[in-house]
Amino acid sequence: MNLKKGILSIAVGLLLIAVAFLFIKPSPSPTTKLPNPNGYDDLVKAGQMFVGDLPDCVWDKLDDECLEKTRTFLKANSEALKLARLGLSRDSRVPVQYSQAYISKLLPELSAFRRLAQTLVVEGKVAEKENRIDDAIQSYLHTAQLNEKLRGSLMIESLVGLAVEPMGLGPLQKLATRMTRNQRRVVIKNLIELYSERDSLDEIMVRERNYVRRAYGIRDQFVVLAQSIFTMRATQRKYEHTLKYKRTRLGLFLVELAAQNFQLEKKRSPKTLQELVPEYLPFLPKDDFSGKDFIYHPLTNGYLLYGVGPDGKDDGGRPLSNRTGKATGDMLTSSPF
Predict the structure, then answer these.
(1) Which end of the chain is less packed: N or C, by CB atoms within 10 Å?
(2) In a structure prediction context, what are the per-residue pLDDT tens digits for the chain, which is 337 residues long?
(3) Per residue in 260-288, is it b (16+ CB within 10 Å) or e — as a string?
(4) Read out DSSP for 108-172?
């Protein structure tokens, strides 16, 4: 009898959710006018302009033969890269259309974004190989900044942006010890903007809900709801975890860059992270998993800097691990993007 009551309660709950989903007025989307010209349009067009294929060898080792092939590819696509940089210099917002045809239209655009990101990374690898560190930094920064240009998007575009961003941040992290103080300052300035200007989880989820309500008829909404009722919450949790991880990782990298400059100039590690503000950082990034400052311990030869990670617990700087099927441990500055 209790089982039947439980099943009945679940059914009633699902029905109420369905009614609310269908008939309660959608949350208002942010009424932001699309920029004109829109950098997003330039970036999509640039990604669709590429001719030829990236040499497969670029992802292994850039030997002399591979380097020459890659230079040829980049030269053939110089106009596309020029247009991409124009798009990166402009305000950008994804022109979301509330129709079922929108996703079909969107997929080739996101594919163009990914190809653009790959090409910018390869451009950076060539510059790094030729010891043009300033140019390499710019190429990697531009790759990471593609995420910022996907503002105003649905979850699908946001996930592409979150996948593209570390393609630029990873090489920047490896390059950090070779940077001069001024180069680090340039990177910090650009990454602070990237850290501060991304859409929040709430903004994206409001657009996601409104898209379903406006793009589908009532009958189709019931179908979509039935398909997603058991997965929506899990999908949102996973997406929220991804957002927090990427933002926390970027925050750690920013603090690490500032601490490296501090150490180079002061000949010692900062006693507390507050010493980095405002000379080396305009503000201290937070640990998104705790909502507090990162944990910092100065050491004899350096420092230990980390966030609590997805489990929300301070594990004393033990590196993040997924061995048990659940992420435990802390996010260190060496955690992968």
Answers:
(1) N
(2) 455 555 555 555 555 555 544 444 444 544 568 999 999 999 999 999 999 999 999 988 889 999 999 999 999 999 999 999 999 999 999 999 988 899 889 999 999 999 999 999 999 999 999 999 999 999 999 999 999 999 999 999 999 999 999 999 999 999 999 999 999 999 999 999 999 988 998 999 889 888 877 887 655 555 555 555 556 677 888 899 999 999 999 999 999 999 999 999 999 999 999 999 999 999 999 999 999 999 999 998 889 999 999 999 999 999 998 766 678 899 998 888 8
(3) bbbeeeeeebbeebebbeeebbeebbebb
(4) HHHHHHHHHHHHHHHHHHHHHHTT-HHHHHHHHHHHHHTTGGGTT--HHHHHHHHHHHHHHHHHH
What are 322's two structure tokens? Answer: 């997924």
DSSP 277: T
Q: What is the DSSP letter of 57?
A: G
CA distance 157 to 92: 13
Q: Give the span between the Cα atoms of 30 and 306, in whole angstroms.
A: 35
* CA distance linking residue 157 with residue 115, whole number of Å: 14
CA 268 vs. chain centroid, Å, equals 32
- 234-238 own/partner pairs: CB under 8 Å, 24+ apart: 236/205
List helix spans (H) across 50-77: 64-76
* Contact by Cβ (8 Å): 328, 309: yes
Q: Six-digit token pair at 3? A: 């089982």
Question: Cα separation of 197 and 226, whole Å?
Answer: 35
Residue 159: burial class (beta carbons within 10 Å; 0-12, 13-18, 19+): middle
Contacts for 281 with CB less than 8 Å, ≥ 6 apart: 188, 192, 254, 255, 258
Please name which of 293, 324, 296, 330 lies closest in space to residue 310, comparing C-alpha atoms. 330
pLDDT for 36: 95
Provide the 3-class DSSP secondary structure of residue 297.
Answer: strand
Question: CA 119, 192, 245: angle at the middle one, nearest 5?
Answer: 75
